[in-house]
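Can anyone check this?
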Amino acid sequence: LLEGCLAGMRAKPDRDLAKTVGYTVYLSYAYADRGDYGHATAVLTEALREDAEEIDRATRSTAYRALSRLYAVTGQTPLAVDYARHGLELALAEGNEWDQGQSHLLLAHILLDDGQADEAGRELTAARRTFGERLSGMDEGFVAVEEARRALQSGDPEGAAERARDALELLGNLSVPGQLGEAYLVLARSYD
């Protein structure tokens, strides 16, 4: 479905580049959900290579975060960090605080996956500062999951358990199995 939409959009002489890249991000998510990381990465890099300078910064920031996630899932941490930082730079240039917060949160997640708890802590602090009071319950839950992971890696099992419980309370009714799974995993490991 998304491939057909993209083909139709690309065929138009007056295509909207931001929408085209936006749909490409969704297509990359669909490929990644199927485990086809090669195609997911290829469609994103192609879209960015073709039209990078003509795409607005907010859309490029989103696409860079999507690439960062793909590289993180495939174990390419240095590339994941680079793309997350590129996304952050664009969000800073755009003045988009929500995208900045998402970029900091993504960086924290990647760094925690790599065992870099101290640096991840700095990113979590920046994410909270950037989000400020505008956090939705779901975003608060996502931050709480990463804070729980950081506490566990930093040798604070009690703090990890508390933040994991907070995350479970915030995310329990939502369809976010990855974050819920991570929160339950932290909670279980905090009792080791």
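Reply from J.R.: I decoded it. Residues 71 and 77 are 7 Å apart (CA to CA).
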